[in-house]
Design goal:
alpha/beta, Aspartate Aminotransferase, domain 2, pyridoxal phosphate binding, antibiotic biosynthesis, 438 residues, transferase, binds pyridoxal-5'-phosphate, 2 domains, Aspartate Aminotransferase, domain 1, 4-stranded mixed sheet, globular, 15 helices
């Protein structure tokens, strides 16, 4: 059928595009959380800014859910992609130089990485990590944490945002998942080692892996205690389970060696995606050689397949992003300083206005919970005033500072944000927060 994409004569372009999208794309978006009620449609992006179909310019902290690290349309990354395509597109036999060079960098930089596979997304990397852990241990169960999000694959698709009374219940993110797939997934509390130990005790010899976002940025930013992360390492070693750090958001963003380098705890497996290639599609799974060798087609027992795995566009973009970060370590000092300024500014503004908030985050990632502290784990977040959180993000977005208007969404400073951008962000926040209490 030929879709009718003609916009109503008087409608703004964005609204017309959104309407056309709803006719040919279910719900009008290609990923559920891209729909926040407003008809967003963007036509250009550069540095710290994105421009919508009606010419509105936004200072961007959404950063494509964290896939933008250096800034939009980074010339170094785009040039590397163009150069790669002058060589070849996808051939799909043997290996390309770009795949080797990317894996070499990851092995060199990431403490847990002795070898690496390249996927097309973070979800695929996680699905492979789960399957690999089960194959390597001969066990079925996976422990994940309440509030952690690890993509769309079956085993991890539960207990991201649950109402309090169902915090330990099954709340699959999707229908169509076999109950048996979720029954093998056990839920623990972040920053609560006893809750993990209790699951190991209740299921002796059955837990294949513990998977966590070392900072659960999918509920804003819960910062782990050192004892918790070290305790997880000791416990998984003691019980013979695989420890998986999902560094799809934290990897490369918080340090060249990932958050594992910051916290000084080395997992068995690490997943990557998002910012690693500054907006181009690539994911990765890296880890201990004896585990990763299960993927070795000559004698290994875990299937590694994917037509687009190791695609030259994603690999070239990832190499360029990593090399840029290596050559410009001030990326970290700048984004961290900007993150600190925003956190300090928001704390000051809300304190002055008498709004009870917990401003949190790490490095260039920041989040502001609307509740009293302290915030250690997911249960504390159930006190968050979701309506105020959304109203703040919506108010910022309406004034040209793009923050996803959904509760518990984090914000990302990129390498392209300037001091002036941070000033503008805090000035805008002052106006929005004043309106919130008015
Ligand atoms: N892991 C984490 C921590 C994520 O935040 C996400 C996506 O939001 C994923 C995995 C899934 O990655 P992708 O969306 O590339 O499949």
């Amino acid at each position: 059928a030929t879709p009718d994409t003609s916009p109503p004569a008087t409608a703004p372009r964005g609204a017309a595009l959104a309407e056309a999208a709803r006719r040919v794309i279910p719900g009008g978006v290609n990923s559920a959380t891209r729909d926040v009620g407003e008809p967003f449609a963007f036509t250009s992006a550069e540095g710290a800014y994105v421009v919508d179909a009606d010419g509105r310019r936004y200072l961007d902290y959404h950063a494509a859910f964290g896939a933008i690290l250096l800034g939009h349309n980074s010339p170094v990354v785009n040039d590397a992609v163009r150069a790669a395509l002058r060589g070849h597109d996808l051939v799909g036999l043997g290996v390309s130089e770009l795949e080797v060079r990317l894996a070499e960098r990851v092995v060199e930089l990431i403490p847990s990485a002795e070898s690496m596979i390249a996927t097309m997304s973070g979800s695929e990397a996680v699905a492979q990590a789960v399957r690999l852990s089960r194959a390597a241990t001969g066990r079925a169960k996976i422990v994940k944490f309440q509030g952690g999000f690890h993509g769309w694959s079956d085993a991890v698709a539960r207990n991201v945002i649950s109402p309090a009374e169902r915090a330990y219940g099954s709340d699959p993110l999707s229908h169509g998942i076999l109950p048996a797939a979720l029954d093998e997934t056990l839920i623990a509390e972040f920053n609560d080692l006893d809750s993990v130990r209790a699951l190991f005790d209740a299921h002796p010899g059955d837990v294949a892996a513990v998977i966590l976002e070392p900072i659960p940025h999918n509920v804003g930013a819960l910062v782990p205690t050192r004892e918790f992360v070290e305790g997880l390492r000791a416990l998984t070693l003691e019980r013979g389970a695989v420890l998986i750090f999902d560094e799809v958001i934290t990897g490369f963003r918080h340090s060249l060696g990932g958050y594992q380098q910051v916290v000084g705890v080395t997992p068995d497996l690490t997943t990557f995606g998002k910012g690693m290639a500054n907006g181009y599609p690539v994911g990765g799974l890296a880890g201990r050689r004896d585990l990763m060798d299960h993927f070795d087609g000559r004698g290994g027992d875990v299937l590694l397949a994917g037509t687009f795995n190791g695609h030259p566009v994603g690999c070239a973009a990832a190499i360029a992003t990593i090399d840029h970060l290596r050559a410009n370590p001030d990326f970290y000092s700048r984004t961290f300083a900007h993150g600190d300024r925003i956190r300090a500014g928001l704390t000051e503004i809300t304190a002055e206005l008498g709004i009870v908030t917990q401003v949190t985050g790490f490095g260039g990632v920041f989040s502001m919970y609307f509740c009293a502290g302290p915030i250690h784990g997911y249960r504390d977040l159930l006190r968050n005033d979701n309506a105020a959180y959304v109203a703040f993000h919506r108010g910022m977005t309406e004034r040209g500072v793009l923050m996803l208007p959904m509760s518990l969404k984090r914000n990302h400073v990129s390498g392209a944000h300037t001091d002036d951008d941070i000033d503008r962000t805090l000035e805008t926040a002052d106006v929005v927060l004043r309106e919130l209490v008015a």
